[in-house]
Amino acid sequence: MSYGQNAGELPFNVGKDIKAKWIFDVREMTQIHKFAGETNLQKRKGDTVQITRLKTPDPITNSLEGAEEPGMSEIDYERLEFKLKRYSRYFPLYGHVVKTHDDDVLGMTMSTSKEQASRSIETLSVDIITSGSQAFYATGTQTSHVKDYLRGGLLNVQQRYLETNETPSITKVQKSTSDFGTYGIDACFITFAPHELADDFRRLDGFVKVQDYSSRITPFPFEIGSYGRQRVICSGFVKANPGAGASLSSPEQADIMNTAGKADVFSIVTFGKDAFDFGGLQGEESVKLTVYNAKPSDTDKNGNKGHISWLAWFGGLIKQQKYISRIECVAKTDSKLAA
Predict the structure, then answer these.
(1) What is d(CA 104, CA 21) in angstroms, rounded to the nearest whole number?
(2) What angle, rounded to 10 degrees, do the helices at 105-129 and 12-29 form?
(3) Buried-exposed string 41-69: b where 16+ CB fall within 10 A, e elsewhere
(4) Distance in angstroms (rounded) separating the CA atoms of residues 49 and 247
(5) How far, in Å, CA of 3 to CA of 184, rounded?
(6) CB of 38 within 8 A of CB of 179?
(7) What pLDDT shows up at residue 43?
(8) Which of 84, 117, 133, 156 is deepest in the core (most CB within 10 A)?
(9) CB-count exposure of residue 152 (10 Å: 0-12, 13-18, 19+)
C-alpha cells in the first residue's frame, strides 16, 4: 500500500488500519482456511513453500529384559512443497462518481474487493481439498458410474477409513483475528459438502441438526449438524462436476440433477488435523492493497480515474492423503425435493 501525504497516497495510520481490517475480513469470510495447517509465510523468501512432514513412527511391542539397551529409531520424514501464486484484480474509482453520488462508493468498493478476494481463495482451497486420492463412490468404483444419493453407510465407511489410518481429530481452529491464534473445540472431523446435499444429510438416521446442539457448542458458519464424529458444513463453493456421472434414464433425469442426461456428481470431503496446508493471508507482505485517489496528470487531465486493487499470494497442498477422503454422489432435482 502506498503511504504518504502526496496526492494519490494515504496517511500511514489510515492505510495500516484499512489493510489490517481488509485481511481480517477476508479471513473471516473464508471457511476452509480455518482448518488448514499453520505455515508461517512471514519467515519465508521466494515463492516456494517447503513443509517437513514427519512420518508416523512404528509402535514398539518388545519389552526390555534385564540390562538390555533399547533399539534406535530413525526420525523418518519427507519434504513437501507448493508454489505461491499471485491473484489480483482492481476496481475503478471515478472522481465524478465519488464527488456527485451520495453512496459510500469507496466503502462499497472496498467491501466488494474483500468479497472477491475471499471467494477466490475459497474456490482455490476447495480445488485443493477435493483432489485427494481416496474416494468412496455412491455407485460403482469410479466417478463415471455414480448415479445414487448419499446414504449413511457411505459416511460410516469414510469415517472408518479415517479412524483406521489414525487420523488425528481436529481440536483447534484458526482464529480470523490479526493475532492468528487458535481456539479449542471438541474433537471431531470436519466435513465440507455442497448446499445441494443439505437435505440429504438432514434425512439421515442419526444425524443431529445444528439446532439440537448443546449450548456449549458454537456452530461454524453454514454448519447444518453432525453425523458420528463429523461436523458438517455446507459450502456454496463445493460445486458439481457436471455430467461426470452415469447415463440416466428419462425417469431418473427427472429426479437427479444432470447435464445432457448424465448425472452431475457432487463431492463430500471429510478430513482431520494436518490433512492439508495453505499459504496466504498471513503477515504484512502476503497482501498488497492499493487505494489510489485520482490526481491530474497528462493522461488524466481532470484527475478523474482512481482505483482500488488487491493482490494476494496463495498456494497449498494435501499434506496427508490418508487424513482426507471424499464421497461422490448425486443430488436431487428441485421437483424431487418438493415431492
Answers:
(1) 17
(2) 40
(3) beeeeeeebeeeeeeeeeeeeeeeeeeee
(4) 42
(5) 38
(6) no
(7) 56
(8) 117
(9) middle
CA dihedral 12, 16, 18, 22 (to 10 degrees): 150
Question: 20: which residues sit within 8 A by CB, 6+ positions away?
Answer: 178
Residue type, 172: K
Strand-strand pairing, 85-94 and 262-263: unpaired
pLDDT tens sequence across 244-303: 999 999 999 999 999 999 999 999 999 999 899 987 655 545 667 777 777 777 887 787
169-179 pLDDT, tens digit each = 999 887 655 55
Q: How far apart are CA 281 and CA 275, in angstroms?
A: 19
135-137 and 324-329 as β-strands: parallel, antiparallel, unpaired? parallel
Instruction: Return d(Cα 265, Cα 248) in angstroms, integer.
Output: 12
Q: Where are the domains of the chain?
A: 12-54+78-128+277-318, 135-276+322-338
> What are the backbone angles phi and psi of residue 150, rounded to the nearest 5°?
-65, 140
Nine-digit cell string for 184: 479449542
